[in-house]
Amino acid sequence: KYLRISDYYHVINSCNAYIAMCDTFRTTGTDRKYMIREYSQVQAIRAWVYMQLVYAYGEVPFYTEPLLTTDAINKMANNPNRQMANAGNLVDLLGKDLISMEYVERRYGYPFYQDYGDGANFVCHSSRVMFPVSLVLGDLYLMKGDKAIEVAEEGADAGLFWQSGCQKCERRIL
Predict the structure, then answer these.
(1) Helix (H), strand (E) at residue 116
(2) β-bridge pairing 160-162 and 123-124
(3) Is the Cβ–Cβ distance between 90 and 157 less than 8 Å?
């Protein structure tokens, strides 16, 4: 019952639907884009779930559009030319979006909700249950392997700097 591929794809499809339908340009009266932090978290969650799928199954179907009907699901599942994700290409498929979301996370922070717990015994700040985009992105680069450093260096113009020749792919923010 554990590691059912359908459970992973249920989360991915929910993320895809949110990403497709979320209006990230809506603002409050102070012109603050109030859904952008949640949008960033959904991108990170989707990437993390794909990463777990690749760890568990090797190569898996990859899609970013929400599948909202049984026909759409069957069409994707039965398409012999569907896009596949694996350890070698997952960062290429998701990296650009995550680099953009990393900037959002640095600028706006995590979504903030109330603390969790009963108030007497256990309290957890809501920011502690978020997926740090930089962590997910770093794991994707590490999953890809040695060539990830070269790919990361190409992304330096997006505000990231990857230490040349570093075997651990350490990240510095400019």
Answers:
(1) strand 116-117
(2) unpaired
(3) no
Q: Among 44, 48, 54, which residue's Cα sits nearest to residue 5?
A: 54
Q: How confident is the model at residue 164 (pLDDT cuts 50, 70, 90)?
A: very low
Q: Which two tokens stand for residue 39?
A: 């949008």
The owner of tokens 């309290």 is: 123
- Segment 79-102 shows an average pLDDT of 91
Q: How far apart are CA 97 and CA 163, in angstroms?
A: 21
pLDDT in tens, 85-95: 999 999 999 98
Place of tokens 């700040």: 125
The count of residues in the chain is: 174
* Residues 6 or more apart in contact with residue 30 via CB below 8 angstroms: none
Q: Is the pLDDT of residue 115 over 80?
A: no
Mean pLDDT of 66-90: 92
> Which tokens go with 91?
């960062």
Contacts of 72 (CB under 8 A, 6+ apart): none
Tell me how far apart the alpha carbons of residues 79 and 166 are, in angstroms, rounded to a whole number. 40
